């Protein structure tokens, strides 16, 4: 499974490169500050585009998206928060490591639609 790697360019330079690519292709790019799913809790900016709904259920919606700098296809699960469960699914996914289970690469919190 491929992983997302960060470049040595500054945050401003990366954002400008992402904006330039998005303008050239007329794409909506979403940039979030995400925390790595495994290991040390390191945050970094992740930009994604080409978002479309691929599934939904009572606990959330799953989107397919493409990471801008690597062109990697990813799934983004937007979980409908219920304070009673205190992100139990996230806590479990952070600890899981099995070849037959999808790997949690990053997670982030948002108050918007996507």
TrEMBL record:
ATP binds at residue 78. One of its GO terms (molecular function) is protein serine/threonine kinase activity. One of its GO terms (biological process) is cell differentiation. Keywords: ATP-binding, Kinase, Nucleotide-binding, Serine/threonine-protein kinase, Transferase. Signal peptide: none annotated. InterPro entries: GSK-3 (IPR050591), Kinase-like_dom_sf (IPR011009), Prot_kinase_dom (IPR000719), Protein_kinase_ATP_BS (IPR017441). GO terms for cellular component: axon; cytosol; nucleus. Residues 48-114 form the Protein kinase domain. Gene3D superfamilies: Phosphorylase Kinase, domain 1. Belongs to the protein kinase superfamily. CMGC Ser/Thr protein kinase family. GSK-3 subfamily. This is Protein kinase domain-containing protein. It comes from Rotaria magnacalcarata.
């Amino acid at each position: 499974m491929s992983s997302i790697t960060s470049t040595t360019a500054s945050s401003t330079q990366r954002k400008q490169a992402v904006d330039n690519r998005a303008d050239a292709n007329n794409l909506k790019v979403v940039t979030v500050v995400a925390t790595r799913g495994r290991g040390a809790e390191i945050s970094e900016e992740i930009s994604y585009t080409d978002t479309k709904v691929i599934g939904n259920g009572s606990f959330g919606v799953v989107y397919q998206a493409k990471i801008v700098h690597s062109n990697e296809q990813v799934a983004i699960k937007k979980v409908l928060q219920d304070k009673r469960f205190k992100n139990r699914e996230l806590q479990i996914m952070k600890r899981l490591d099995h070849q037959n289970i999808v790997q949690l690469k990053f997670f982030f919190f948002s108050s918007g639609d996507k």
